[in-house]
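Subject: sequence -> structure tokens, single chain

Hey, anyone have a minute? Need the predicted structure for the following. Not urgent.
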Amino acid sequence: MTALAETISDLPNDLEPHPAERVCVVIPMYRVESYIAEVIAGVPDWVWRIVVVDDASPDASAERAQSTADPRVVLVRHEKNQGVGGAMLSGFAAAHELGARIAVKMDGDGQMSPNFLWDMVEPIVARRADYTKGNRFFHVGEIVRMPLVRRMGNLGLSFLTKLASGYWNVFDPTNGYVALDLNLLHALDLKRIHRRYFFETSMLIELNLARAVIAEVPMPARYRGEISSLSVGRSLYEFSYYLMLGFWRRLWLTYFVLDFSPGSLFLVIGVLMVLFGTLWGLFFWNKSIQTGVPASTGTVMIAVLPVILGFQMLLQALAFDIQNVPKTVLPRRWRSEKT
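Reply:
Had a minute. Here:
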């Protein structure tokens, strides 16, 4: 892809990023021909480029995007549908190649208000975060506007996502309104990022392994009557599977490969003690059933005490993990030489 001239129109006020930041909006497109022109028109003038990714959409989404005649628009086409994750990775790569420093994901269906673009970008510009994520649950009064199925799904997945990703400060796991410092692309294992609906959550897991700082941006839920193509039943099944895999991978890499900390000791000792107490108790419980002779008090205590102490160790490991949320923004050395 040929790099475009690094120019930008004059910015209207000081509440917008310096031109050197080169903010790029990335929009994945699939069956959004009714919304995409309006979404592009709503992108503020201070945004440097708008990368729209046609994810093999069977409708006229790409044509509608091009018809806006916005000179900032760069079209990326997929010959085969790759899912939202695949589209975003293509969009991030294109934005990076163009020379952008910050990329913001906005869906093409108009659910994400451009009024929050600066709120998403500002923590990254100010170097308080490497990645920002919208949170619709800050506004209690707005939650009722969210469709019931989505509301329950978000609440149900929230705890599991915290556990799998290690970001205990992130509450709205399926919110796709995100922004990132593109130098993160050098720190993430992009092959591990899911290409479809698990994209946002798999990003969180990889971000934690890279020790990236995440900031949440409060925003209301915004729905316009569109029909989601996401199957609730299928997503719950698939998310549970991927969350479990992500959880064990994060624990192994964070506490035994990349580092060995007090949390590692709590985890190992806790698991061993619970396992010993459980197996000891099951063995003598089975023996008592077969012989009809009750286990002695000492035998019962040998089973109970390790389980209790092991459970306390696991709670300590959980507390350590909660306190281990990344707090230091990644250094500038991650930036590529061209930016």
